[in-house]
Design goal:
800 residues; alpha+beta; seven-stranded antiparallel sheet; 16 helices; disordered N terminus; disordered C terminus; coiled coil; zinc ion binding; repeat
Length: 800
């Protein structure tokens, strides 16, 4: 029996009937009849309006109390909390209910739960009356040892083990297991505040009627006193008997009778001292001893007063906000109720639609069944007719009947001409009958195996028949998605995702000026296929994009956001021009004039054969067919990582023609390709910019050496760069600022700057590509040339 539960009260006399407390009665405007004007008015029936208002107040108070009662019920016993404990998950549960839950799992301490409160006179049946023998209470030192030992022994724990088992408690509120520690319930705090709220609630509505003495013989008298130390309620006689003069119990201070006894203050479950501080790190109340222990070393600990004031201010602020927005709460409640009504209607419609579809399937099956049965019936009748005819033919072959009897009569004919005339036809019939008799076979089979149905596929389809699911979140293909003159976005659905009828693309600029409110996405609806183009993006921006699918079931989840950098300048479209300054036997330009490959010639082979002898190496040059005379331009290309030596850059058109038109072979290996002969450095002053600038690539590396930078006019942002190499990215980007006379070389994938250098822009400037040995360059094609669906930023979707 639970020691903390009082015996059920006896039937309450009429003069002890439950009633509202005086405070609540005064708040409702209710007085005793004859004590005030309102009571007389109601008694005499002179003011019905006042009576109606009072009844409305009673209804409101009753409703408010009933709503608050839900917060005061234990999730286990569904009764009001009795000695609630605060679990680590911040939920509450009665102490007795917690012991029962642990007992159901096999965690039972010897002699009951040692974590319970000390034994009271009312907790044992043998001490319910002063005339019965008293039971000796456990000694304080033994009780202290039991309390500090935790929940006692339990399965898996050995006495004196260095690492005792950690006790897990199944929280009935959050449906999860919470860790209580090795001390079990003894390490939990009682929620004294919740106990006070429950007691005030009981007193306000007079739940349970009068409080009876727990030590009297039946029938017990009404209690007049309570003792916190003894944890029991007494009548006057029992209180005197249990607190005799000259004993320690005489020092106990009587209190008002109550059903819940609480300690005067919140005590530390580990050290039995009053808590004075709050550990913010552990979010737990601690005492002075806990504060200096190693368990809370380095933790942020504040006085209880500070934590009390901070939490009270937060709670007050939140409660004030809720109370100040009651109209919003009511509006949301109305919206939720309207949603409930729509849900009921929509659910009913969905049921009708499913029923109609299933009935349609049943009708199709019934129609198909009728047609199949009709086919079987026709086949059966045909076979029966053929078998019946065969039976008749065989019966005619019996002696004295049918064809045999007719033949026997014909054989009796003696007139030869007449016999010949009649026997000729008869002989044919007899011959056929004889042959049928010798090669007997039924005219039709009895098996209907050809009429069996294979419904395995249909049964599987019917078994898998389910509601249509929304598409799963698409996966954006980052290898095929890129930004150039336009943004090309490509995605795919997961393997087992339901199909999508169309897609919705959302995008926005992350570097756009901040606007009040949530980030605004631009949206394009009903995009067919698994790729799309976003036209006319802003240059030098970062776009974030996402995609979601849609079908009859609705919209699915968005894909993960993908960030794309757009080129820093408008894209320059051009083709390769190999009409001059090149060796056609060593350079091969593609038909679309967007790719070029250099094949090593005989001079390079001789150089590889005789490295220390003089030989001739040639520089093959390919220029773009356009020249830039203003503004900013950007283009990108891909260099074959296996290329021997390739230079990618720009230069003055006049200087490039002058330097490379019929360019003579130069001596190798003493020839330095970046010695200044190809840049016009001898005629340039210190302040003058070089007429062209190149980025040197070879064997999958980019050379950012000091010699190349200074001789070719390639200087970094902070002066000449140190000699180093960096890996070759998949694509290289070149950005030309004609007005500023600057050229930037970028990683076209991440738009990370590789090198920036000055350039003489006194005339038209055109792209240039130089080859020494084998190599290949591929210009990046404009995205707009792809026959994909286009989505214009700021406009409407258009088909290409």
């Amino acid at each position: 029996m639970r020691s903390d539960i009082s015996p059920p009260p006896l039937p309450i006399p009429p003069h002890r009937a439950p009633a509202l407390s005086p405070g609540f009665a005064a708040a409702a405007g209710i007085g005793h009849p004859g004590a005030g004007g309102h009571g007389r008015a109601m008694a005499e029936g002179e003011d019905m309006q006042t009576f109606t208002s009072i009844m409305d107040a009673l209804v409101r108070i009753s409703t408010s109390m009933k709503n608050m009662e839900k917060e005061l019920l234990c999730p286990v016993c569904q009764e009001m909390y009795k000695q609630p404990l605060v679990l680590p998950c911040a939920h509450n549960v009665c102490q007795a209910c917690a012991r029962e839950l642990l007992g159901q799992q096999g965690y039972i301490g010897p002699g009951g739960d040692p974590s319970s409160e000390p034994t009271s006179p009312a907790s044992t049946p043998s001490t319910r009356s002063p005339r019965l023998s008293r039971r000796t209470l456990p000694k304080p030192d033994r009780l202290d040892r039991l309390l500090k030992s935790g929940f006692g022994t339990y399965p898996g724990r050995k006495r004196g083990a260095l690492h005792p088992q950690v006790l897990m408690f199944p929280c009935p509120a959050c449906q999860g297991d919470v860790e209580l520690g090795e001390r079990g319930l003894a390490g939990l705090f009682r929620n004294l505040t919740l106990e006070r709220v429950v007691e005030r609630y009981r007193q306000s509505v007079s739940v349970g009627g009068a409080i009876l003495c727990q030590l009297c013989k039946p029938p017990p008298l009404e209690a007049t006193k309570g003792c916190t130390e003894c944890r029991a309620t007494f009548c006057n006689e029992c209180f005197k008997l249990f607190h005799p003069w000259g004993t320690q119990k005489a020092q106990h201070e009587p209190t008002l009778p109550t059903l819940s006894f609480r300690p005067k203050g919140l005590m530390c479950p580990d050290h039995k001292e009053e808590v004075t501080h709050y550990c913010k790190t552990c979010q737990r109340l601690v005492c002075q001893l806990c504060r200096v222990r190693r368990t809370h070393g380095g933790h942020k600990i504040t006085p209880v007063l500070s934590a009390y004031q901070a939490l009270k201010d937060k709670l007050t602020k939140s409660l004030t906000y809720i109370l100040g927005n009651q109209d919003t709460v009511q509006t949301q409640i109305c919206e939720l109720e309207e949603t409930v009504r729509h849900t009921e209607v929509s659910g009913q419609q969905a049921k009708e639609e499913v029923s109609q579809l299933v009935r349609g399937l049943g009708a199709v099956l019934d129609e198909k069944r009728a047609s199949l049965l009709q086919a079987i019936e026709e086949c059966q009748q045909e076979r029966l007719a053929r078998l019946s005819a065969q039976i008749q033919e065989h019966r005619s072959l019996l002696d004295g009947s049918g064809l045999v009897g007719y033949a026997q009569e014909v054989l009796k004919e003696t007139d030869q001409p007449c016999f010949v005339q009649a026997a000729k036809q008869l002989h044919s019939r007899i011959a056929r009958a004889t042959e049928a008799l010798q090669t007997f076979r039924p005219a039709a089979g009895s098996s209907f195996r050809h009429c069996q149905l294979d419904v395995g596929r249909e049964m599987k389809l019917l078994t898998e028949l389910n509601f249509l699911q929304v598409p799963e979140a698409p996966v954006i293909d980052t290898q095929r998605t890129f930004a150039y003159d336009q943004i090309f976005l490509c995605w795919r659905l997961p393997p087992h995702s339901p199909p999508a009828w169309h897609y919705t693309i959302e995008f926005r600029r992350t570097d756009a000026p901040a606007q009040p409110g949530p980030a605004r996405w631009q949206r394009r609806e009903e995009v067919r296929g698994t790729s799309a183009l976003l036209e006319n993006p802003d240059t030098g921006s970062v776009y974030v994009l996402r995609v979601r699918g849609c079908n009859k079931a609705g919209y699915g989840e968005y894909s993960e956001d993908v960030h794309l950098h757009t080129p820093p300048a408008p894209v320059l479209h051009f083709f390769l021009d190999g009409r001059w300054g090149t060796s056609r036997e060593r350079l091969a330009i593609s038909k679309d004039q967007r790719a070029v490959r250099s094949v090593p010639g005989l001079p390079l082979l001789l150089a590889a054969e005789r490295l220390l002898t003089g030989c001739h190496l040639s520089v093959d040059v390919v220029l773009g067919d356009v020249a830039v005379t203003q503004g900013r331009s950007y283009w990108a290309c891909a260099v074959d990582p296996a290329s021997y030596l390739v230079k990618v850059g720009v230069g003055l058109e006049s200087k490039l023609q002058e330097s490379f038109q019929g360019a003579p072979d130069v001596i190798s290996p003493r020839y330095d390709p970046d010695s200044g002969h190809d840049s016009g450095a001898e005629d340039a002053t210190v302040e003058a910019s070089p007429p062209f600038a190149f980025l040197t690539i070879g064997m999958g590396k980019i050379l950012l050496g000091s010699g190349a930078s200074s001789n070719a006019g390639l200087t970094g942002r902070d002066g000449p760069a140190a000699s180093c190499t960096v890996p070759l990215p998949p694509r290289l980007g070149i950005c030309l600022d004609y007005e500023r006379g600057r050229v930037s070389f970028l990683d076209a994938v991440s738009f990370r700057g590789l090198l920036e250098c000055p350039l003489d822009c006194s005339g038209p400037v055109c792209p240039a590509f130089c080859f020494i040995g084998g190599g290949a360059v591929q210009l990046q094609e404009p995205v707009g040339t792809k026959p994909e669906r286009k989505v214009t930023i700021g406009g409407f979707a258009k088909l290409d």
